[in-house]
Amino acid sequence: MPVFPKISLRPEVENYLKEGFMNKEVITSLGKQEAERKFQTLLHHLSHPPSFTTVRVNTRLASVEHVKSLLLDELQKQSNGLSVPVLQHPDLQDVLLIPVIGPRKNIKKQQCEAIVGAQCGNAVLRGAHVYVPGIVSASKFMKAGDVISVYSDIKGKCKKGAKEFDGTKVFLGNGISELSRKELFSGLPELKGIGIRMTEPVYLSPSFDNVLPSYLFLQNLPSAVVAHVLNPQPGEKILDLCAAPGGKTTHIAALMHDQGEVIALDKISSKVEKIKQNALLLGLNSIRAFCFDGTKALQIEMFEDTEGNPPFLPESFDRILLDAPCSGMGQRPNMACTWTLKEVTSYQPLQRKLFSVAVQLLKPGGVLVYSTCTITLAENEEQVAWALRTFPCLQLQPQACLIIVTLRTKMRLTEAMVLSIPHMHAKAAQ
Question: For this structure, is 112 an active site residue?
Fold first, then answer.
């Protein structure tokens, strides 16, 4: 069986995480040895893909049952006769789950090898083929049509165009090369498209490249939970403060039946265009996307008329989603994180600045959901505790859903936290 290491972290980063997770309360409750085991298990799981591939159905264009039927037909074509089930989430009725099979045993490694970068390797573990820009190295005798073994260079040590690599690498499976080594590294303008078509991946997961693009949105399960917690209603005015690439934005618009107004902000213009493209593809008309810095979204000069564009007057929104920029250390799979401790701890001030803006833009009685895709206490539980101290108008709301496993912490804020994508569900006092 392929051996997957735990996520590779800088020693100071691992110690920082361990200090948070192995606090006095946890050690008292579990014992030091068991707490250490649970922490190491967490790091190990981060290097593996989730157990399910999750897709969200665009219920504005078709029913869940109809899309499920179309998806089953598509997966049957991909699987060469292997029966692949499509399950409907028991609580999130617009979410479909496809089990991921693996890690698969007895895949015979080939003499011909290709090395891909860590990000490309993560995508392959989620069902992607290998695209040309992700290929770092290939055996000197590799030709188009060869069956080759694909490995991920998780530490980024392989030199571009190398003919062999003996550094740390993780086996991802076998595929068929679409190009020869000479074509890959010819020095011509960068090629695009599929370079290796995966035929025996270690994790068998469906490819969603251009599969039912108007009906489905590929979205991790915790990400799909967030819009349901926000619970948008038809006719409301809702702000997605850090919106790109628009998965949660379009989910919000769909849940409110495209009736009302969803304002999406991001400060990078190319990402804003992506939000607009996704809204158009999914047939959603209630979304207005702006290239704007969320930290400046509060209008200071009350007399200025911005005609509904950012910045906005205080108390302008019924509900606000703050899916804050974060260290991203909860994203799976991830076999290597090379960030320094300074980088990992740099997000808290920005998150608090955005939080302060969001609270002022929220109507009395409105709902604010704060979410991240990281596992650090400083960006999750500590931020929730800070917000409740800083803004007495906020009341922490219990979550009636949706993911069974919660994360107990010394802050005792378990009703506000969801494993893998912790978030705060708060309501402003009227």
Answer: no
